[in-house]
Amino acid sequence: MTEPRLVLLFSGKRKSGKDHIAELLRERLGSETCCVLRLSAPLKEQYAQERRLDFHKLLDSSGYKEQYRADMIQWGERRRQADPGLFCRLAIGDARQPVWLVSDARRRSDLEWFWNRFGERSRTVRVEASEDKRRERGWEFTAGVDDAESECGLDEGVAFDWTIHNDGDQQRLEEQLKGLLSLARERAQA
C-alpha cells in the first residue's frame, strides 16, 4: 500500500449508483491516478471461503448474491464488532495510486476508520437516487437488508462533503462530478 493523497468515501442506498459514479471517476482520472476500492469485496471473499460459495457471483448484482445478502450482513456485523477496521484494512492492502475511491462505505465505523487513518485526505460523498429510479435499476425493499445498519447507518449524523444526485440526468451528473474531478486531479499532482 502507498499512502493516498485523497480518499473519496462513497455512501448511499442500494441501487443509488455508487459503483457507477466511482467507475466514471476512475475512467476520467485513469488507472494510474486512482483505484476503486470496495469494502464489500474482502467481506464477500471471506464469507464465500467460510461457506464454500462462489465468490465471483457474490460480487455481481445477480440473484445469487441476494439469496445470501441478509446472512452475509449479519456475518459481517459480527466480524466488525470484533474488529471494526478489518474490511477497511483488507480493502486498501494493494492500493498504489494517489487517489482512492471507496465505493461502498456503509457504516459510521467505516468513515471513522478512514478519518482516523488518513485525516483530511478523506472526504465523504453521498450518492442519492429516488426510490422510483432505484426500482428501475432493480431495487425492491427487503426487510432485514434495507432497514439494517448497512443501508441506514449513514442516513443521519454525517455532514457529507458532497452529495451527488443520480436520477438519470447525465448532464446534471456531469456538472456534479466537476468538483470531485478537480479536487482529485489537484491532489494527485500535489
Reading the helices and strands in chain order gives EHEHHHHEHEHHEH
Helix tally equals: 9
| Secondary structure tally: strands | 5
Derived from helix and strand composition plus strand pairing, the structural class reads: alpha/beta
Order of strands side by side in the largest beta sheet?
2-3-1-4-5
- The coarse overall form would be globular
Instruction: Give the mean pLDDT.
Output: 93
Provide the descriptors you would attach to this structure in a database record.
9 helices; single chain; alpha/beta; 190 residues; 5 strands
What can you tell me about this protein's structure?
The protein is built from 9 helices and 5 strands; from the N terminus they run βαβααααβαβααβα. Helix content is 51%, strand content 14%. The chain has a 5-stranded parallel sheet. The protein is α/β, with parallel strands linked by helices and 190 residues long.
What topology does this entry show?
Blueprint: E1 6-12, H1 18-29, E2 34-37, H2 40-51, H3 55-59, H4 63-82, H5 86-92, E3 99-102, H6 108-118, E4 122-128, H7 131-136, H8 149-152, E5 162-165, H9 170-189
Parallel strand pairs: 1-3, 1-4, 2-3, 4-5
How would you summarize what this structure contains?
With 190 residues, the chain is of the alpha/beta class. It has nine helices and five strands, in the order E-H-E-H-H-H-H-E-H-E-H-H-E-H.
